Amino acid sequence: MGIRKLGYVGLNVTDVDAWTDLLGRTLGIGVTTAKFGTDDVALAELDEFKYRLALHPSTQDSPRELGWIVDTPSELDRLTRRLTDAGFTVAEGSAEEMRLRGATQLRWFTDPVGYRVELAVGEAKARTAVARPDGTHPGATSLGHFVLASPRLAELRELYESVLEFALTDYRAPGLFFFRCNPTHHSLALAVAETPSIHHLEFEYGSIDDVGRAYDRAKANGAPISISLGRHMNDKAISFYVRNPSGFHLEIACGGIDVGEDWVPHDFGVSDVWGHHHADANPFASPTP
Fold first, then answer.
1. CATH 3.10.180.10 boundaries in the chain
2. What sections of the sequence does the record tag as coiled-coil (predicted)?
């Protein structure tokens, strides 16, 4: 009970057109638009629900909101009390925000980094089947996880573990921790860094063939592949990463494992079984023995 899954992410972006081109032509993700205030917001369609990624036109690139789906209104009330008791100010989302999210209830607070974190009840189904750009079917199936890097790692761990009741799945020295809110290996990872950022956002794909075809399209279209195809050691996912127009990574992945209640958190050592060669320096590289 409580938080059930990662529901959506909203971003302020300076180049919506570049984003929609990457999502559609390379990653095979359909994009629609919706009015929010006076802006046309681009909504990425990963599944039958309204959206998983919202791109708001802006003069700067930055995270706008991180949205988690909560099981029931009573669980939303319970989590609100836990947040309030921990010193967070929880506010109600507006009617316009609820309409855009497809939620029946929406509350939000500001995390220790300064990011807006939303708790939503309800998801609006917007379609019976997902329309994909030509030649990209079936492609993406869901939103998986994000990795948040920050100098306030201890405070973020306290928020997600002690207040929001995420479970630690595993970790890697010196400062990278993976958390789950359902049987999926992780929906969130927290890392230590000098400045706060989203390191990457992960999209789930249906099969290794879907990931491979997206990899071929990325190479053919000249998309900036920031981390090559590989398999992670901890969740066993096969994936590659592209750098998106806002400067952070998108992970295109399949095959991540589920874990049970008897899972024991542990240091999983090296980061990858094979592959995942970084175009630039890896800020989370395994320490040299």
1. 3-121, 140-275
2. none
Find residue 54's DSSP bridge partners.
Answer: 10, 43
Task: Tell me how far apart the alpha carbons of residues 252 and 265 are, in angstroms, rounded to a whole number.
Answer: 25
Asked if the bond preceding 174 is cis, omega within 30° of 0, the reply is: yes
Query: Which CATH number among 3.40.710.10, 3.10.180.10, 3.40.50.2020, 3.90.580.10 corresponds to the domain 3-121?
Result: 3.10.180.10
Structure tokens at 84: 């309030």
Provide the 3-class DSSP secondary structure of residue 5. strand
**Averaged pLDDT for residues 48-63:** 96
Q: Across residues 120-144, what is the average pLDDT?
A: 84
Q: Give 189-244 pLDDT, tens digit per residue.
A: 999 999 999 999 999 999 999 999 999 999 999 999 999 999 999 999 999 999 99
| Nearest C-alpha neighbor of 76 from the set 103, 44, 53 | 103
pTM above 0.85, yes or no: yes
CA 72 vs CA 5, 35, 124, 255: distances in Å? 13, 28, 15, 29
Q: 140-275 — its CATH code?
A: 3.10.180.10
Instruction: Scan for tokens 């063939």, then name that residue.
Output: 209
In the numeric block, the tokens 């996880």 are attached to: 145
Q: How many CA atoms lie within 13 A of 226 on its CB side?
A: 17
Cα(158)–Cα(277) distance, integer angstroms: 32
Query: How confident is the model at residue 287, as a pLDDT?
Result: 57
